[in-house]
């Protein structure tokens, strides 16, 4: 199925958001065929007006999940919007919001992995240059001994 996809990042100033909504309105009116707009709309007020004025619809979210929090307030500022053509061709599509992840936890895990890699490097590959030099010296000695025994 061919469709148009629009990735959204709603900027923080009202002026910038007004430009976003106007551009989206224009895009929706000229789009031919199925249209999917996904992303961070960063707005509530203009969002509802946009839905009413364009006929776009929010895709159903599998669970009632918030997409943003500052630990005091929760909100759903991300979403997926589709036009009528999309609904006709893909009537049972839903949005599944994945559990948020904490970058700090990723860094902690990477530190543990880094320590393990360093330990592996030291035990298995440590002093490789010294080992190579020792083996070269042994090889040189063997070659020298072979020449002497001729």
From TrEMBL:
<dbReference type="InterPro" id="IPR036691">
    <property type="entry name" value="Endo/exonu/phosph_ase_sf"/>
</dbReference>
<protein>
    <recommendedName>
        <fullName>Endonuclease/exonuclease/phosphatase domain-containing protein</fullName>
    </recommendedName>
</protein>
């Amino acid at each position: 199925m061919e469709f148009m996809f629009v990735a959204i990042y709603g900027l923080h100033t009202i002026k910038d958001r007004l430009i976003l909504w106007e551009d989206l309105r224009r895009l929706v009116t000229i789009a031919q065929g199925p249209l999917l707009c996904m992303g961070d709309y960063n707005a509530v007020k203009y969002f509802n007006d946009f839905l009413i004025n364009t006929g776009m619809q929010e895709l159903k979210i599998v669970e009632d999940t918030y997409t943003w929090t500052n630990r005091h307030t929760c909100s759903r500022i991300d979403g997926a919007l589709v036009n009528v053509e999309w609904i006709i061709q893909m009537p049972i599509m839903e949005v599944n919001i994945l559990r948020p992840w904490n970058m700090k936890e990723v860094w902690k895990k990477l530190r543990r992995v880094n320590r393990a890699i360093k330990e592996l490097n030291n035990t298995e590959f440590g002093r490789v240059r010294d080992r190579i030099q020792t083996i070269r010296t042994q090889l040189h000695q063997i070659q020298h001994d072979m020449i002497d025994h001729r």
